[in-house]
Specification:
Elements lengths: L2 H26 L5 H19 L1 H6 L2 H25 L4 H8 L2 H13 L5 H18 L9 H23 L5 H23 L8 H25 L5 H8 L2 H13 L5 H18 L2 H8 L1
């Protein structure tokens, strides 16, 4: 198994984690304001990471610190913009517009590297984007509003984050890089919450369970795996795999809440998965073996 395939599988696990986290986030936000929730989630993840990876943080050089701060600011902007956008637009439109980063990543990557991705990558992106639309959008979609604009900016910052991780993780210690960005996002979220919200310490046991799971699995674990895995795969591959987030959110919604996908949504999910699989197939080798 190649390093890229291993990395893509790791990113698929990251995507499954994000899909599962949707229900936990939704439940937590019913009790907590946005940045209050983010401050708790990222602070717990950062404190635990310091305990587990203390030596790596101590050994981090200036370049790792600088890149980690940049990534932390981008993560903070991405989460903040998406959540603010949700106050004005629907969850389905938010998922679709955020998923637009699958188009933006190869475009930005081409502009920066001045090199076009393989044709099958463009085809996979196209298939996955159509699938994303079928999965997340419905007949009741309204016109563009301010929430959609916030969410589109979020898609841009999300694409930038994927590209920057792909670049920085090859230059720095991947684990330290992930931990620093978690810490920066925690600090910025705390400052924002103290400034614009009335932060609280939740008393609900279930909310704490949600936050701890999100902190350990979907923040600390996921960010470290993403940072390490993107060292061995392309940003476009990563963006394409991440389009599977609403697919797994739908799967967990069915398992836990009994929510059933429409036929349109089911076709969309299949198209996303087809788009992922196409990027992993070496058609030249496959055709040679058939011949």
């Amino acid at each position: 198994m190649s390093k890229q395939l291993k990395a893509d599988i790791a990113l698929l696990l990251v995507t499954i984690g994000w899909g599962a986290s949707f229900l936990l986030i939704k439940s937590s936000l019913s009790e907590l304001s946005t940045f209050n929730f983010l401050a708790l989630r990222f602070s717990i993840a950062f404190i635990l990471s310091l305990i587990v990876f203390f030596k790596k943080i101590i050994k981090a050089d200036k370049k790792t610190l600088k890149h980690g701060i940049v990534l932390g600011i981008v993560v903070y902007a991405t989460y903040g913009l998406q959540t603010i956008g949700l106050n004005y637009t629907t969850a389905s439109k938010s998922a679709f517009i955020t998923g637009f980063n699958v188009i933006l990543v190869p475009i930005f990557s081409t502009l920066l590297m001045k090199k076009l991705p393989d044709k099958k990558v463009f085809f996979s992106v196209f298939i996955a984007f159509i699938g994303l639309g079928l999965l997340t959008l419905n007949k009741n979609v309204s016109g563009i509003n301010i929430g959609d604009i916030y969410t589109f900016i979020c898609a841009i910052t999300c694409a930038v984050h994927i590209l920057l991780i792909g670049k920085y993780t090859k230059e720095c210690d991947s684990v330290a890089l992930a931990i620093i960005q978690i810490g920066v996002c925690a600090i910025l979220s705390l400052i924002t919450s103290l400034t614009f919200e009335s932060p609280i310490i939740p008393s609900n046991y279930d909310v704490w369970i949600n936050i701890i799971i999100l902190s350990v699995v979907c923040t600390l674990g996921v960010f470290i795996v993403q940072s390490v895995a993107q060292k061995y795969t392309s940003p476009t591959h990563a963006a394409l795999i991440f389009t599977g987030e609403p697919v797994f959110a739908a799967v967990f919604g069915y398992i836990i809440l009994g929510e059933v996908l429409s036929s349109q949504g089911f076709i969309g999910a299949i198209l996303i998965l087809i788009g992922m699989v196409i990027t992993e197939i070496d058609f030249k080798v496959a055709f040679k073996e058939v011949a």
